Amino acid sequence: MTQSNFHPQDDEHLKSGLLKANQDFRVCKAVGSQTSKSPCFETVGTAIHLDYCQTLKCLGNKQVEVGAGIIVKDLLAFLDQHQLALPNIGEWHGQTVGGAISTGTHGGSYQHGSMASVVKSITLIDGQGQARIFQENDEDFQHLLPSFGLTGVALSYIIQCEASFNINLQRRVLKFKDYLPRLLNPEGAEFQAAIWLPALDYVLDYSGDRTPTVNHLALSLRETRFNTPTLILDWLSKKLAFRGRDFAGKTWRGRIANLLASWASRVLTSKDYSAHYHHMIAPLHGDAQAILKKRTRNRTPPEGEFAVSLEQAPALIKELRSIFAQNGHYPDRPIGLRPAAAEQGTLFASQGQAAVWVSLFIYPNNPLMEEIPDLLMRYQARQHWGKCSFQPLDKLHLLYPNWDDFKACQVKLDPEGRFINDFAQKLGLVPSRLEEKL
């Protein structure tokens, strides 16, 4: 747990604090909303809070300078005032911009990458207290986003926005076999997000495209994907399928289960929505404290989210369904599914290929955890850095071809290892000359 907190008042105060940390051989870590499910920002040293980094400025050419401490919700409100948009946001807008960018927070689209993909320039303070500015054509830029705070304390970013727009969104209930071709089609809807109820064998699909005008006959507010009716149906269907699931209906138990699933799916009716873009793709509201309290109250299982290449996705999904059918072991919540755009960068999950995000909520004592880590490694599924790791941390480097290049950049920007925490050590992101010290 954190031993101390540092709230710098300005850049010079931050620089002096980092220099003192070097003198005292203390580790530091910049933190945002502190809602990451991953331990990537935890530290036993000093947590640096960037509340003062509140820059919001239009620069022309639809570019905006934004401070790392700005809450995404406030950034979106600013963009609304200037008729600008950022289609790369995740489903919750209560995190800081710095946290969202440094962990690779994303939406669901084959056309739009994570929030980090629109960054054109980053200003940071390195491990020696020096201010640095990196542009997207700089050699080391590819290593900085995402980097979960290992390359410096990000102060601000210049992001590329676009003209504001509206979305017509449809919620449809589909049998899994009918949904899968939609998920695997890069030419499909521009914005997509779904939850899969594996024992029910149905999917609740949210898909939408831009529209010049809002449809006032449609709903203007949408619910979150993981809503109460779906959670209840998911739980009940898993109880009925506790010995495995005959999806093909070849047995009497399978046929009865399919009939019950068809009946239960009618609870989830189709809906049409239409509104300003971020009301459609970021429906989860509440500040950081509210989100943390909700997780505690609901005893939310650990969530890992993994990007598997579009080419490999059908085989991974087929193997998951086989596991469910054979032994009746399921994740402890519905499975999230979203498309992922190809992104270039050392630690981006998609690694330059279109991919599919698979989100798994699994308690540690779930028998699935005997199979999931190996499954993810075999299909080279790379994690969302802000969520839990289900694979062995010391094996993750095998999934990133330019891992050593990232380490070289890390050494250059943080030669004394001031930003290295326990998570980084388990990943093997420790310069060899510092291993004995740490």
How is the secondary structure organized here?
Layout (H helix, E strand, L loop, with lengths): L3 E3 L4 H14 L3 E4 L14 E4 L6 E5 L2 E5 L4 H10 L2 E2 L11 H7 L15 E7 L5 E5 L17 E8 L1 E2 L2 E10 H8 L7 E7 L4 E10 L16 H13 L11 H14 L5 E6 H5 L6 H11 L4 E7 L3 H15 L7 E6 L14 E7 L10 H7 L3 E2 L19 H11 L8 H6 L11
Parallel strand pairs: 1-3, 2-3
Antiparallel strand pairs: 4-5, 5-9, 6-10, 7-8, 7-9, 11-13, 11-14, 12-13, 12-16, 15-17, 15-18, 16-17
Please provide a written account of the structure:
This protein is an alpha+beta fold. It has an eight-stranded antiparallel beta sheet. Helices cover 28% and strands 23% of the residues. The mean pLDDT is 92. It starts with a strand and ends in an 11-residue tail after the last helix. It contains twelve helices and 18 strands. It folds into two domains: 4-163 and 398-434, Uridine Diphospho-n-acetylenolpyruvylglucosamine Reductase, domain 3, CATH 3.30.465; 166-396, Alpha-Beta Plaits (2-Layer Sandwich), CATH 3.30.70.2520. The longest helix is centred in the C-terminal third of the chain and has 15 residues, at 313-327.
